[in-house]
Structures are given as structure tokens and as C-alpha cells.
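Quiz preparation item.
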């Protein structure tokens, strides 16, 4: 079995993939925990949850591929892969015709375009400011005293969205405070936040050359307010895969499987040559 582990700034996600499967490979288990300060400990916890769901022992894992900002931190990894590459691989597996991807995580927003072969053609990321990533939604929900899980649905009820124009998280929070002081509804503020993120995302997507419909991945993709804001801003269909937050972990597992098979093939080829020589 192959484990793909995505070590994000907010959560660590793990996917276990059957290494005997081909194009229709099935995910056997998933696990997710908050990242915390001890990355290796949290990664082992996420892996344990995925193993429990798959009803497998830890000894069943033959290969571990890591991705995400903390991908170098695991001593038990076999390979590390960038989030750009793993995200592209996971999306292309789920949507063979996809050519544009948006990945909004806690720390950054990434726009990716793919060539006809499914390889990364171009990518752009935001400037690492919280106002351009999912952490801004987290901070806004905390200030507005609402559960984060409800933010996306509340934004759908907005009647008069209030745009958040600042590109700095600190100044954007000041705008939110001003809106609250003026009596603006929580729904209208949240909708304005999603529209602001959609505007910034659209600029990144334009720079990578998005040509048609979009595949949206990452934890923020589960928030319907963000999906609607993107569809309205871009004028395209936005596809959100099931378990959108696990797509990079899936891509890492798929690439790990590919690398392991390539290594096994090389070993068999060398072995065959030795036998022939003897």
C-alpha cells in the first residue's frame, strides 16, 4: 500500500492507495488531524486514522510520499513532492480532461494550468498574505463569532455584499470591524470576503492562462460561498471533487505509486540482465 501525506499549515491529510490497482485505483482510507507544532507526530496520527479506516496494519504501508509545506519534515518518507505537482496529479486522476486548478489552503492560494498531457504548464501563487488565503476566512469567522463550517452557507444568504478591498490581512480586518460597527449583516460581510478572494484568485488564474472550466481543491473548496463567488466572478463551471481537501495527498500517493513501480521495473530489468549474463 502507498501512503500520500499532505502536510499543510492547518491540517495534515493522509490517503492510502492500493498499490495493486491501476487507473481505477481505489482510496482505501483517509485521515486528517490539525498540524500542530510536532509535524512528524501529527503525520503519524493522520496515517493511523487512515489505516484504521482501511482496516490495515501499519506494516501494510510499503511506500510513503509527502507533499505540502512540511514535506521535508518526515523522517519516514520515501519521496517528497511539491504541492503543485501533487495537486495536478490528483486532479488529473479525478478529472482526466481538466486543464485549470485552483487550490486555496490555509497559507496560500495556487493557480495551476495543465498541458494536454496533464503536466503542469504554468502556476502562480499568492503573496503569502493571509488576506489572500483560507486563513483569512478562519480569522474573519472567529471575529464574527460564527463556526467556520457555517461561513460558506451564511454567505449564500447575503442581500448586499460588502467588498473587502484591502490586500493586507490587518487592514482587511479593520474593514470588517468598520462594517460591523456600521451594522452590516454577518452574511453580507462574509459574502464580501469570498468575493474578495475570488477576485484575487481570478487574477492568478488569468496569469496561468485558464481556458475553460475550473477544478477547485483544498479545504476552502468545501465552502459553498466561495464556490459561488468564483462561478460569478469567472463565468465558468467550478467543479469541486469529493474530499477536495485530500486531493494533494491523493496526488502524492499516485506519484509515489508511479515512482515505486518504476523502481521495481528497473530492478527487474537489472536482474534479468544479470541472469542473461550468467
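Solution:
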Amino acid at each position: 500500500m502507498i501512503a500520500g501525506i499532505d502536510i499543510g499549515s492547518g491540517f495534515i491529510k493522509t490517503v492510502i492507495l492500493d498499490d495493486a490497482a491501476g487507473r481505477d485505483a481505489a482510496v482505501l482510507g483517509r485521515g486528517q488531524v490539525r498540524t500542530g507544532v510536532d509535524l512528524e507526530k501529527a503525520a503519524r496520527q493522520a496515517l493511523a486514522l487512515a489505516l484504521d479506516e482501511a482496516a490495515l496494519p501499519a506494516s501494510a504501508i510499503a511506500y510513503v510520499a509527502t507533499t505540502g509545506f512540511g514535506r521535508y519534515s518526515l523522517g519516514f518518507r520515501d519521496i517528497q513532492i511539491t504541492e503543485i505537482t501533487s495537486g495536478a496529479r490528483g486532479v488529473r486522476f479525478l478529472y482526466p480532461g481538466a486543464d485549470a486548478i485552483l487550490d486555496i489552503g490555509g497559507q496560500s492560494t495556487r493557480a495551476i494550468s495543465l498541458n494536454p498531457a496533464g503536466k503542469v504548464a504554468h502556476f502562480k501563487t499568492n503573496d503569502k498574505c493571509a488576506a489572500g488565503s483560507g486563513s483569512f476566512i478562519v480569522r474573519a469567522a472567529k471575529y464574527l463569532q460564527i463556526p467556520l463550517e457555517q461561513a460558506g452557507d451564511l454567505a449564500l444568504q447575503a442581500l448586499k455584499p460588502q467588498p473587502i478591498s484591502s490586500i493586507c490581512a490587518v487592514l482587511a480586518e479593520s474593514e470588517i470591524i468598520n462594517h460591523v460597527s456600521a451594522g452590516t449583516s454577518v452574511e453580507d460581510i462574509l459574502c464580501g470576503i469570498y468575493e474578495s478572494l475570488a477576485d484575487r484568485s481570478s487574477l492568478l488564474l488569468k496569469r496561468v492562462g485558464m481556458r475553460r472550466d475550473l477544478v477547485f481543491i483544498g479545504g476552502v473548496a468545501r465552502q459553498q460561498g466561495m464556490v459561488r463567488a468564483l462561478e460569478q466572478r469567472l463565468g465558468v463551471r467550478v467543479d469541486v471533487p469529493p474530499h477536495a481537501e485530500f486531493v494533494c495527498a491523493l496526488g502524492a500517493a499516485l506519484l509515489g505509486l508511479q515512482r515505486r513501480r518504476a523502481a521495481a521495473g528497473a530492478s527487474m530489468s537489472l536482474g534479468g540482465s544479470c541472469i542473461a549474463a550468467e
